Amino acid sequence: MATKTLPAFEKASYLIARPERLLTPALLVYAEAVRQNIQTTLGLLDGKAGRLRPHIKTAKLAWVVRELVSQGVYAFKCATTLELLVAASNGARDVLVAYPVAGPAAQRVCAIAASFPSVAVSALVDTQEMVAAWAGTGIGLFIDVNPGMDRTGIGQERTEDIVELAKAIRRAKIPFRGLHYYDGHLSALGLDERTHVAHRGYDQLLKIVAGLEAAGVPVESVVTAGTPALPCSLSYTGFGSAKFHHQVSPGTFVFNDMSSLSQLPREWGFRPGALVFSRVVSRPRPNIVTCDAGHKTVSADAGVPNCLVIGREDLVPLKPSEEHLPIAVPEGSQAPALGELLYLLPRHICPTVNNFDHALIVEQGKVTRLDRVAARGRENPLILSVRQSAG
């Protein structure tokens, strides 16, 4: 990814007081930027907080869930039972487990839902075989529609099969909540082409809705768009005139990263809300320095360079190892000194956050609190057995 596609970030606005006292690497979460990013997103939705169903896989912090709730956002998406538990524990009223759930995981979803009876919990299905597990549980179901990403879901061209699946859900006396449509595979396209392809998919999505309604199956909600497809969903006029309740489900927007900030319109004004704080620990060559932010700190799943050095965009992060991140210093540039502190903007923030047990919440340039990354990782795989034995 070329860094020239990113806006310039003023390093001074990300500096923290007394940085020398902190262990590195550390995750810094900037409260003012997070709040601004939430407010910006709500502004794009004309203040209609009910249209936003953010995916908490990015933030994973209870603090961020509470911030969203405080601004009127009550519906969320998640991928793990731990994320479901964190959302339900911190003010969510409607949570969609947007991941295929099978076996004991379905039992755990039901157990969490039973512990929070005021929270509407839903799951995804894409075959009739998956329906039976949810009968009599009170869990609602969305049909997962595959827009061409070929990761999960039932193909968007298979309207008849989608209608039959919805009928099977209703026959099982399970609440049919609507359709889930994640078009994350469009992220590699430029905005114009991304919008064109996304809108073509949304046209097909409306045909599916029409097919369901013609079969006597009303559609309550349609959920689209992670962060890259957010502009596409917002510009699609068909959603505005639809009978169903349309929601968008970005996750990255709360923190942003190199990818999202290059994909979203710059004029929207999104800011980095989370950075990785790192120290230079070695200088193996005159033109290379190494900091303590390997891929167990800053995820490299989205490729190299895996981050941008705020305020030193001339530096070029190289391929990381587990605990080391070598950085190339171009000819003519001054190399950072040993012990110098670096503020890194990850290329992919979601798995980066998952690398940390704690986040430092920064307000007005000061670390004001430590927050546990509550939804990091996964629950104890024996949790059902332990509880059954205890019972």
Helix content: 25-40%
Q: Which fold name is given in CATH as the topology of one domain?
A: TIM Barrel
CATH architecture label name of one domain: Alpha-Beta Barrel
DSSP E strands, number: 17
Structural class based on helices, strands and sheet pairing: alpha/beta
Q: Give the termini separation.
A: 53 Å
* Mean of residue pLDDT values: 95
How many DSSP H or I helices?
A: 11
Q: What report would you give on this structure?
A:
The protein has helices at residues 31-44, 62-70, 81-89, 104-115, 159-171, 191-214, 230-234, 237-240, 258-263, 349-353, 383-390, and strands spanning 26-30, 75-78, 94-100, 120-125, 140-146, 154-155, 176-181, 221-224, 245-248, 274-285, 288-291, 307-309, 316-317, 325-328, 341-346, 358-363, 366-372. Strand 2, helix 3 and strand 3 (94-100) form a beta-alpha-beta unit. The chain has 391 residues and is an alpha/beta fold. Helix 3 (81-89) packs parallel to helix 4 (104-115) and helix 5 (159-171) packs across helix 6 (191-214). It is globular, with a radius of gyration of 22 Å. The protein has eleven helices and 17 strands. Helices cover 28% and strands 23% of the residues. The strands form two sheets. Strands 1, 10, 11, 12, 13, 14, 15, 16 and 17 form a nine-stranded mixed β-sheet that branches. Strands 2, 3, 4, 5, 6, 7, 8 and 9 form an eight-stranded parallel β-sheet that branches. It has a domain at 31-260: Alanine racemase (TIM Barrel, Alpha-Beta Barrel). The mean pLDDT is 95.
